[in-house]
Amino acid sequence: MKPVAFDYYRPQGIAEAVALLSDKGDEAAILAGGMTLGPMLNLRVVRPRAVIDISRIAALKTISVRANVVVTGAGVTQSDALNSDIIVREVPLLAMALPWVGHFQTRNRGTLGGSVAHADPSAEIPLALVASGGTIVLQSRRGQRRVAAREFFVGALVTQRQPDEILTALEWPRSPPDTGHAFTEIAQRHGDFAIAAAACGVRLGKEDQVEELLLAIGGVEDRPVAIDVNGFLGRPAAKMAVDLSEHAAAIVNPLEDHSASADYRIALTKVLVERAVNAAVGLAWQRRNRLQ
Amino acid sequence: MLLCDFLRHELQAFGVHVGCEHGVCGACTILVDGRAVRSCTQYVAQADGVDIVTVEGLAEPDTLNEVQRAFAKHHALQCGFCTPGILCSVTHFLRDTPKPDEQQVRDMLSGHICRCTGYASIVTAILVAAAVLSQKS
Q1: B29 in contact with A at a CB cutoff of 8 Å?
Q2: With 80 as the cut, is the pLDDT of residue A292 above it?
Q3: What's residue A189's pLDDT?
Q4: Is A254 in contact with A266 (CB distance < 8 Å)?
Q5: B19 inside 8 A of chain A by CB
């Protein structure tokens, strides 16, 4: 189908974009890569009066390393992130998640910020951001504010972003080089929406005990959820995967829809967590030994 | 106006095929600044000042490039609806990945729906073209 007619704006900078959005408010939609907004416009699921295209704002396309975080501009495309040495080295979990995002042709245009702003419950980039403990940067005429990813996602397609705010950047904590990560998911076909997905990061101590642990689940609830793993810190890593998978499966509150029942999502949570934890522990072990 | 509709109806680039109109089927894939992207989820106003190549521009008029020759030789098309989009994708893909393995080709092809070939012949054609091109270079 074709979209309902809209006014098209292409601001040259962030300040101009923020001013436009502030004027248009609820009637405007922000367009970055258009890999989600495009279909929604064409299917007339959304009918904004104004579309504000931020895809050519150069300041939103940078990847930079700060003391503790890597900052990715909202307009960085998924393929640029996937081909970035900085992302591969400093945010390996994102690099592992990106090949699961759509297809070669959609990653060439789809952005990191667009996926996070849209907040599909099964999307990989929000899951990686929640698992990493990252932060979302929002800009409006009222100023800039930062929201932790674990609080940003409220429900399916619902976030803490206010109508006058533009998502300008994502902050990804830099991963220590001896951390192992894994990202895994089940979808009907590769590139489809995940029925369930798991992201994990592990760092091991001298005795192979768990020193740091990150675990989050996507596609199962109405938003990506971080699993509380405090009870697993200090435990031997080798035998952790099964217990952790049962722990995660017991606390998720799964969706039920046309693609999967709640029971199936619980079963997938168990399988995916076990796989992700085993893979992450194996990698953490290798990386630590290589660094020693 | 969708970019694909502009290319077809205003510029007569009829090689830009329009299938699903929401970014899923891959028939409308073109090269924008060298990158393989959907033209149905972009609007013509967004194309102002960018470099666009459709299937019509992949080879000199009345000739076939190496990938197109391999598609013909290995029966990588039947009805041809998905073909122009795939050829544009392959152009970008082989530039980034000059010596792909079968899995990489299949991953790239997951963004295109072909209901005729079962993909096997497309995979063969792309692998053959890649081998020929990397020998030449």
Answers
A1: yes
A2: no
A3: 83
A4: yes
A5: no
pLDDT tens track for A87-124: 999 999 999 999 999 999 999 999 999 999 999 999 99
Q: CA-to-CA distance for A254 and A223, rounded, in angstroms?
A: 10
Interface residue A53 vs chain B (CB under 8 A): yes
Tokens representing A63?
A: 């990847």
Contact A53 B41 (CB under 8 A): no
pLDDT digits (tens, 9 = 90+) for B22-34: 999 999 999 999 9
Same domain, A225 and A283: yes
User: Based on the domain organization, do A44 and A114 belong to the same domain?
Assistant: no
ipTM: 0.96
Contact flag B107-A104 (C-beta cutoff 8 Å)? yes
Report chain B's mean pLDDT, rounded to a whole number.
97
pLDDT bin (cut points 50, 70, 90) of residue A239 is confident
Asked if residue A232 and residue A207 are part of one domain, the reply reads yes
Q: Assign B16 to helix, strand or coil.
A: coil
CATH of the domain at A207: 3.30.390.50
The rounded mean pLDDT for chain A is 96
SS percent in chain B: helix, strand, coil, step 5: 45, 5, 45
Q: Are the CB atoms for B129 and B98 separated by under 8 Å? A: no
Cβ-contact B2, B21 below 8 angstroms? yes
Domains of chain B: 3-57 (3.10.20.30), 66-136 (1.10.150.120)
Q: Where do runs of H (alpha helix) occur along A47-100?
A: 78-82, 85-90, 92-97
User: Per DSSP, what are the bridge partners of residue A9?
Assistant: A52
- Contact assessment for residue A215 and residue A274, using Cβ atoms and an 8 Å cutoff: no
The answer to whether A241 touches A229, Cβ cutoff 8 Å, is: no
| Chain A neighbors of B48, CB-CB under 8 A | 10
**Residue whose pair of structure tokens reads 């079963």 in the numeric block:** A267
A187 touches B: beta carbon within 8 Å: no
**Contact between B29 and B37 (Cβ < 8 Å):** yes
Residues A30 and A43 in one domain: yes
